[in-house]
Amino acid sequence: GGAKPLAGRKAVVTSGPTHEPIDPVRYIANRSSGKQGHAIAAALARLGADVTLVSGPVTIPDPTGVNVIHVERAEEMRDAVLAALPADVAVMVAAVADWRVASAAGNKIKKKPGEAPPPLQLAENPDILKTVGHHANRPKLVVGFAAETENVADNGRSKLERKGADYILANDVSPATGIMGGDRNRVKLISADGNDDWPEMDKEAVAEKLAALIAAELERREQG
Ligand code: C5P
Description:
single chain, 224 residues, two-stranded antiparallel ribbon, 5 helices, phosphopantothenate--cysteine ligase activity
């Protein structure tokens, strides 16, 4: 291809954590920084794609050249992703909270002397990757991540099938790896063709390599 192999292509990327409110001032969250998802959005844009990045709350800046939609909750993230379809490729990198508080309080929950702590009833959040992977408007390429602390390849492959993805980038996020929140990543690319272990590299380099792969795969599929 030419210098901009993704020119004319639309991409939707999710990144960061979600915040699930308990009440107006408290929430449930996770340690995702958004570094990997933001780097992927930027890399796709550099290759010429029209990129919509749906980001949960992060402290890193919006990447340049990308249309960024800021959301808080998983349900808002799902709605923004579906509104961005159709797209040629979806890359779901966000660490979406598996559960939300079933009914968040409208006012701050008050601590009352002598009363037991309030129970937190949880409800399951939508699985955005699975929704997109099985959607009538499914992008030609659907990519997910799988953060695991054990059985990385097996868990990644079962996610590939269950969620209807073309690729899963599986990584070991055990605390000793320093991947969660860090600048480096080591992923295993899982696809119908098998598993490919990528060496440890910067999250920027993972993003470049994935964007190049996406461009090559879209091109290959076009040629039949
Ligand atoms: O949490 P899990 O390991 O299942 O996440 C695997 C993939 O699914 C990731 O790409 C993540 O962004 C996506 N996911 C999602 N919506 C969820 C849970 C996970 O899009 N509710």
